Amino acid sequence: MRSRSHQFWRALSDTSELCAEALEERTVLSASPSIAAPATVFEVERLDEAKPLVANSAPVGADGQAFMQGTNYSFSPDDFPFSDPFDTPPDNFDGIRLASLPAQGFLTAYGSGVAVGQIIPVEDVLAGELAYSTSGVEAIPYAVFTFQVVDDGSLADGGANIDPTPNTFTLLYDDERVDFVRNLYQDILQRSPEAAGITHWLDQLVDGVSTQQVASDLWRSFEHRSIQVDGYYERFFERDPDPAGRAFWINQMLAGLDESAVIAAFLSTEEYRLNNPTSDQFLTAAYSDLFGRTPDTIGFNFWLDQLNSGQLTREMVATQLATTRERYLNLLFEYYDDFYSRLPDSAGLEFWVNQLTNNLLDSTEVAAALLSTPEYLNQPV
Description:
Layout: H1 2-31, H2 37-50, E1 60-61, E2 64-67, E3 72-74, E4 82-83, E5 93-100, E6 106-109, E7 112-113, E8 119-121, H3 122-126, E9 130-133, E10 142-154, E11 160-162, E12 167-172, H4 176-189, H5 195-206, H6 211-219, H7 222-237, H8 243-254, H9 259-267, H10 270-275, H11 279-291, H12 297-308, H13 314-322, H14 325-340, H15 346-357, H16 363-370, H17 374-377
Parallel strand pairs: 2-12
Antiparallel strand pairs: 1-4, 3-9, 5-8, 5-10, 6-7, 6-9, 10-11, 10-12
Helix pairs in contact: 1-2, 4-5, 4-6, 6-16, 7-8, 9-13, 11-12, 11-13, 14-15
């Protein structure tokens, strides 16, 4: 790849010399009265036609991210996202230019320190010459620097073809705080963290915010509430949410409405009523949606009598069903499986169910507490 670049620069240099000679010849000939004017015009057109041969568009980079095991990391070309969408055919990745250096730790090339503006060729990155090291005692469990990708095309002025917009590279340490935030993203948001997100929460932890508060904030985030609302539409209505309805319920939860109250509200909607018009159908659907089973005879008859006699409305039955011990038991089994990959122990199960049934904690608070226990903090990524 480098040889191609060198050949290109040599060809470009030869072309420049030829153009200079042609320009000098044209100037001399134009001064002679015995040479016709069209010859001069012809020479100008040849020079103009040569310009597109050296035209080239800049490549495009993107943010990079990696996780470092131990205290050293050697970069590879795959660490630096690269594309060249504006050239046909596209040029090749030829290296990076360092736009800024990390505030902590040591970024080195060829065994020595590096400088802002230094270009590291791709073959040297491939050989592991660009590396990062940390003493392991830094307070912040990550390092950040910026870079610009370089391609193997050439500019008319002979300079390197560089993405004008620096991108950010985030290197995360092998640190329990990093593992904690990464696990929270998987368990709460069901995805891997983006660099800006994970560094935000790591900064919170560095500043003294508790693990329980970080877990709670992520659980109460717009993204997680959106996931929950989408799930309620699928479970209770068997359809995708409409934009207006989705926005309404997300805002209700962001304003503090508890998950149990939202579930009861879904069971009380006109849509749920139309899908389950009779009391029998309503109870059968509610047992299936909340408990994952058909109603037992005693429970079914009890609630049916309450509805048929008018002593309870559907809204009242929905609220009571959504806050039963059975639903909370099912919820705790889900939490233990999702967070700890195990069945709940009897003492822990009884403790948390009592917190919920006695209104000492709501579902969000129980989830945040479980997500900040020593057992969760020691979970592998």
